[in-house]
């Protein structure tokens, strides 16, 4: 029997439900996952697919060393952009170490690459996955393409290193594809950052807290990646070989890419980043963080010299100090005032104890 009054009541309830304000933290978490993190992971997969193709083409003599190096730098930039987004599977099970081994205080990369090409001259991607994380990733790839010991103009030398170069390309491609598939799976990170509660997060506030922790850890890591070669932990004595990409002289470009990615999490797409969660009475803090990002990125963009070159004179060292100080401002604002404004207890970060 038709009951118009009951139907009207049901429709009214549905309309009210549709108009009720959504949880802003849930909206922000889902937006950052879908509009910022997922596209960055997809670019990483594309870059690593190209890296695998590039290694094969170079080793077959169909591509120049310059092109192989350009493809490496592209993959390294894609990885750098993931630093503030290491949330979920890539942050677990030593996977990040499988992409880049840093810090490398004892030149383990160089030593283990040489040992591996001697012990397994025809290594492939599957065998490499069982080897030390030191030789699986971009640090080992960089060693082969850039280190002074590897004279790739010599055909015998090139033939010696090429199986490992191709294996690393295959390994990085497989790892990136595995992580992206995990993100997109039914109960993967995209779903877990979009609908609450779930196995990982009891509510949206936990997801936002996790995002901020990852940001704070990443910004702290950027300071370490700059401060270590500057000598900030060695009484002012520079340690240029402790830079994360010293062989390719691309450390500062990687830091800039990481910082720009962190800014994207802050701003978001359509203002659906962490910034959008601040109430109107926190506009001064939002403006302060905007200015801190802008100032630091401007310093990176205005520099045309490599980290090594900057370490060699007083003016360069002052530039590095200015860069470090600008990163420190961004880091401290996230760790202190932003965490407090969002009601987040940060606790320990992944770098504590380093």
Please render the helix and strand layout as text.
Blueprint: H1 4-19, H2 24-59, H3 65-81, H4 95-99, H5 108-119, H6 125-128, H7 138-146, H8 155-184, H9 189-192, H10 204-230, H11 251-267, H12 283-302, H13 307-311, H14 314-341
Helix pairs in contact: 2-3, 2-8, 2-10, 3-7, 3-11, 7-8, 10-11, 10-14, 11-12, 12-14
Organism: Pseudomonas rhodesiae
Main location: other
InterPro entries: Imelysin-like, Imelysin-like_IPPA, Imelysin_sf
Shape: globular
CATH topology, anyone? A middle domain of Talin 1
The arrangement of helices and strands along the chain is: HHHHHHHHHHHHHH
The main sheet comes to: none
How many DSSP H or I helices? 14
Classified by CATH, the class is Mainly Alpha
In the CATH hierarchy, the architecture is Up-down Bundle
Distance between the termini: 72 Å
Structural class: mainly alpha
Mean pLDDT: 93
Content of β-strand: under 5%
Protein name: Imelysin
Subcellular location: Cell envelope
Main location: other
Pfam family, one: Peptidase_M75
